[in-house]
Structures are given as C-alpha cells and as structure tokens.
Amino acid sequence: MPQPVPSQHLFPSRVEIDLDALGSNMRCIKRLAGDGAAVMAVVKANAYGHGAPQVARAALENGADMLAVANLAEAAQLREAGIHAPVLTLSLVPAQQIHLALGLDVRVTVYDSELAAQYLAALGDQQEKLAVHLKIDTGMHRLGLLPDEVMALARRLRAAPTVQLEGVYTHFAAADEDAAYTARQLAAFRQALDAMRAAGCLPRFIHAANSPALLDCRDSYFNLVRPGVLLYGLRPLHDSPNMAAFQPAMRWKTQVAQVKTLPAGSRVGYGHAYTTRHEATLAVLPVGYADGLRRGPQTWRYVLLHGERSPLVGRVSMEKVIVDVSRIPSVKIGDEAVLLGGQGGRMISADAIAGWLGSNNYEVVCMIAPRVPRAYLSLRP
Prior knowledge:
Number of helices: 11
Strand content: 15-25%
Helix content: 25-40%
Oligomer: single chain
Number of strands: 20
Largest sheet: 10 strands, mixed
C-alpha cells in the first residue's frame, strides 16, 4: 500500500516563505531600534499571511522581545504552538474571555473606559493580575481613549489590585505619508505621558513606532517599537535609505496545467471577456480567486514564466486563470509560474501588485488564501 501523502503536498500551487529573509529583517529592525528599545513583532492576521507560529519563532530567534496579535484566538494559536514569549492583543478581547487571557498569560489592550469596567467586574477578587496596555487615540480615531479620558482610567487601573498597567501606546495614522500630522500625534502622546508621569501612573513600556515610524521617526521609539510590515520585507516608505537591507520573505508560485494554441477570434473564459486578435498560445494556470488571485475590479497584469512576463487574459475563475505565452517559447505542462516574487532575474513585487489592484502591499500578502500551502525554506547550511 502506498504511504499517504500530506494534503498540502498535493496542492498545485504554494507560497514559499524565506525564513532566512525573516531572520535578516528582524536583525535589521534590532539594529534600527538600538539598545534603548525592545521590539514587539506584529504577527497578527496569521503574520500577514506568512504563518504566525513560524514567523513568531523566526522573529524571537533573531531578537524580538514580544509579539503582538489582533485577538485572543491568534494569541491562543501561538500558545498552542509552544510559544511562551509575551503576547499583546491589539484589538477587542470581550470581557467574558478575560479569564482565558489570564490563563494564556496574554497582555490585553485597554482602549475604552466601559470595557475596562467590564474587565474589572469580570476579574472580581482574582488573585493573579491581568497585564494591560493602555491605548491612547492621538489622531488615528480608531480604537483608543481620547487624551482627556486617559488620566482617570490610568489612575483606576493603577489602583486596581487585579490589574498590572504594563504599557501605554498610540498608533500613527499616516507615518508613511504625513510627517506633520505624525508630529502632532507624537506631541499629543508626549503630553499624555507627561501627565501620567506626574501622577505616578507611567507604566514600564511606552510604544508608538510602527514600521514607517521606525524607518523615519526616531523620536517615536521610546523603549519599545512595534514593527509589522517591515518584518516581512515589505516597504512602508518609498524613499527611506533604511529600507535597503530588508528582503521580501514571500514567493507565490503555481504550475502550468495546459497549453493550447487558438486561432484569431477565439473567445476566452467566462463571459467571453477576451477575444484573441490573432493566433495565440495560451496557458491555463490552476489558481484563481479562491486562492486569493483577485477577480476584479482589478487583478494581476501578468505572471512570470521562463523568466518572462505573461499577461493575464479573460476573467479570473475560481481556481483557474489564463495567460498569454505566445512570446514565450516551449512552455509546457508543469512549468513554474510565479505570481509574487522573482524568477529568472525578473520580479513581481507586492508593491507592483498593489499598484495594479489599487491597494497596498499589506493586502496583497494577507489575501492569499489559507488553503494555499505555506512552505518554510532556509538556505543556510
């Protein structure tokens, strides 16, 4: 009897994650942060589609001190994978999950006075303390306490026997494009910190610097930085010299399923959205919008085959797409096609794809479906 083959090995496409690049990126972040700031690596959203447990391990092995996730489910995934480093949830943890957070030894963001009251009520006379980080809304106007709400809650949390106020932070709305607004946010944050310090409520960790601020705003470092997209080698700023050493960690590839030559006037794909103008050789790739290859309103312009650009034609199907290989000789079934990453000296970057889609590089890597297997590679001996 043949031995069963793991299902991920049977899938016709895969995402390759370069662990060496992740490690190098983390070391670059540590050098930027310097000796005065610890590093909280953001691994939310399954590490931006790269795989949270694997990325978390690579980050910790290369100098990260803490991890950040969106919610308790993501934190639990790290604990289930045997990762015991400090973890902060950045978004909602419902009050009914607070005892689970305690059991998982997870830090929780407090960003609302009403929610904080629910936490304190749920904790009751709990002996173990819940570690929390207070989030201040200095201008993002998403989650966070407005500056005039901070002191009352900071005092309440500092006095609560069931809570340890471990950190305070804010998040920049436009550190990648509006230095003046970022400076105003930073000034508002410093004002709140001064008031907390004067009242004896200033916690151990102070953090504000996300990836673009880490590259371009040293005044925002404080004693903890919070990089996300930089860890994955993606560009938050287009003109920073500090970006030169970072390397993209993700490559997405599939293989040719069929090659056919059609006469002029052939209608291709659903809805006859494309008609050949002349004889054309087309290749079918077994990848589509179920895998994260967006159907519309914008999609990929081309993939790489034999190191050459092969344009998409017709509509993207659920798990197929058609590309024109008329100018690429000898394409055959099984040949590698690259949707993201390099091949033969050419590159399709997440930035380029983001431009095609009218989006950003964050979305490009996050939208690749979980069903596409991730392979973790290291070229080091």
